[in-house]
Specification:
Strand content: over 45%
Strand order of the largest sheet: 1-4-5-6-7-8-9-10
Shape: globular
Number of strands: 10
Radius of gyration: 18 Å
Helix content: under 10%
């Protein structure tokens, strides 16, 4: 029953918005500065201590009102302290793809996908896979996004993130 309802809803939304969608190429530079937080993860009641404060930027190109591509770089400070090790630092570097739909001239909803690498700067100096996926919205120049991040190889760590920032 759920599948039928979802299929009917998708068909209705497609029919309603079919005439409103116009694909034109209007490339222009876009950028974003953001701050955020990624939660820590628990696996088998063991805390992985990967909570992180995030400060970053995405620089790229808006191809039109519906699609943006760019490169993201974020500096991370892991929020859990290990005695004798000092603060732990890292960074994310990733390719970013953002598909969106402008509801009005000042309000837009989007889905964000980032794929790249996370690099630990101190103390281990290791690196691993990074994937970020989630929805968000833009109101005028204000961005808000949230979702899931996958960090590391194999099982890795899956965490929740929230970011807010300024879009230009």
């Amino acid at each position: 029953m759920r599948k039928k309802i979802l299929l009917m809803l998708a068909a209705l939304l497609t029919a309603v918005s079919a005439n409103a969608f116009e694909w034109t190429w209007e490339p222009k530079y876009v950028g974003e500065y953001h701050i955020g937080y990624g939660t820590t993860a628990h696996i088998n009641d063991y805390d992985r201590y990967v909570g992180r404060a995030i400060f970053g930027t995405i620089q790229g190109v808006s191809l039109n009102d519906y699609l943006e591509v760019g490169v993201g770089v974020e500096g991370l400070m892991l929020t859990h302290y290990y005695k004798g090790q000092g603060l732990r630092w890292g960074m994310d570097a990733y390719a970013n793809l953002r598909g969106g739909y402008p509801i009005t001239d000042t309000f837009k909803v989007f889905l964000n996908l980032g794929l790249g690498s996370q690099i630990s700067l101190k103390p281990s100096g290791g690196h691993g896979f990074f994937c970020e996926f989630g929805p968000g919205f833009r109101y005028k120049k204000f961005n808000f996004s949230f979702g899931l991040q996958k960090i590391g190889k194999g099982e890795g760590t899956s965490t929740f993130f929230v970011k807010t920032g300024m879009y230009f």
